[in-house]
């Protein structure tokens, strides 16, 4: 759409919004949540042995509408930002080196010497996200393994690639689909990575400038600022992680809460598989 048309659209919406600013509407999170604006960051770690690690994060802005006028403004801002966000999403997928579904609200990704991974939260339903990944990964030459577990609110699928084994996990929670895609580049040699037999290992680090508390079921782990922040940078850094930042868990679903000092707790549920870290 041409810039002149965008201007007419915005001007018309502003006039309508002024007239309707006092008319209340019922909030609709699925409709009013995203403006299309994006906040993003990137960090790069380079080691003396030539290993490098990159981490990306991005959060899409939100627009809360309590009146008809505010909803019209949200709609106009969304249309204005959407074209730019599509370009951003395409570039982010290329930089990360993994396919990313559109319309995500939060995205984090990592590329280290031994793993490439991406975490995405999107309002799209699980079936649509699963269809996107299957088509995208097939086009990338990934081969889906037998034994995929696909249900209404979850999916777990393994893949073989030319680089190494990969896995996709999808979970439907609180009106969002949460996707975790990971590609293991080569076998991990460091014993500190390996979980107990038939267990999964959860390794915790804190890249923020504030202390954090992580609760897994009823077990609480306190993380000082930057405790284990080099976890994803190299095998040796992850292998040297203190024992109290490693959890070996039987396969199953777990509730996790993360609270950074001064902030509110963020709650999630995740699934642990045997022999995975």
Cα Rg = 21 Å
Overall number of domains: 3
**Most strands sheet:** 9 strands, antiparallel
Helical content band:
25-40%
Keywords: Signal
Signal peptide: 1-22
Question: What characteristics describe this protein?
Answer:
alpha+beta; disordered N terminus; 3 domains; about 280 residues; nine-stranded antiparallel beta sheet; 5 helices; about 25% helix; globular; Double Stranded RNA Binding Domain
Secondary-structure blueprint:
Blueprint: H1 3-20, H2 29-32, E1 34-46, E2 52-62, H3 68-96, E3 104-111, E4 115-122, H4 126-139, E5 143-144, E6 149-150, E7 154-160, E8 165-173, E9 176-184, E10 200-203, E11 212-216, E12 219-223, H5 235-239, E13 246-249, E14 252-260, E15 266-272
Antiparallel strand pairs: 1-2, 2-3, 3-4, 4-9, 5-7, 6-7, 7-8, 8-9, 10-13, 11-12, 11-14, 14-15
Signal peptide: 1-22
Keywords: Signal
Overview of this structure, please?
- Strands 1, 2, 3, 4, 5, 6, 7, 8 and 9 form a 9-stranded antiparallel beta sheet that branches.
- β3 and β4 form a beta hairpin.
- This protein folds into 3 domains: 1-96, no CATH class; 99-187, Double Stranded RNA Binding Domain; 194-277, no CATH class.
- The chain has helices at residues 3-20, 29-32, 68-96, 126-139, 235-239, and strands spanning 34-46, 52-62, 104-111, 115-122, 143-144, 149-150, 154-160, 165-173, 176-184, 200-203, 212-216, 219-223, 246-249, 252-260, 266-272.
- The radius of gyration is 21 Å and the shape is globular.
- The protein is α+β, with helices and mostly antiparallel strands.
- The longest helix has 29 residues, at 68-96.
- α1 packs antiparallel against α3.
